Amino acid sequence: MVSIRFIIDMDEDIRTAMYFTRSRMIAGGVNFTGNIIKELPVLRSIIGKSASARKNAIKKALPEHYRSIIDGLKSSKKRFEKVSSSFDSIKLERYMQSEVGVCRAYVSVFDCNPVYPDKKKFQIYYKASNEKALKTVVHEIIHILYNRHRLASINRLPKGKKWMLSEIVDELVMEKFGLSQGGYPEHRKHFNAFKKLMKESADFKSFLNQAAESATGL
Ligand SMILES: [Zn+2]
Description:
This protein is an alpha/beta fold and 218 residues long. The protein is built from 9 helices and 6 strands.
């Protein structure tokens, strides 16, 4: 069973802004820091600065921004609750041989979508369309389900490959459920090889083990 609690939490957004302004962060062909600046251009000047300088600037700019969009945040929260209830998570859990239970979704002013699988929480951008919202919710739930397997074969991978594998598997599962997002641009060249493995595996868990083995050679 998957039960999602949608929450608005400015402190969480402050942490997100702190993290993605440490330096200009681009991964898999996606500009995460750019997505922070897009929402709050005043933060452009703090990229790469000290933690205290960044915290001061963020704590000054973010509450003001929140005040100006609070109605939008609240209506997005309601909209996302409705959208996410349309997805049949049972089938996803059955396929991925894992269960999620209760998780929290932070309706965020930033379009970065960090996910914290251990804490079963993720962010969702308040301006996301209904279609994007559904896809984001499912994408992040897949990350959480994936993480619950805690396979030694995956844990052995270096950090970069671990992340890449989780995103590739995520996109392939999305595709299987008719919710493809296209995946990260830099990962697309690997899709066919992993799709083949997925098709040939007896179940999701054995696919994961084989995928982890393949990822070591990438
Ligand atoms: Zn992801």
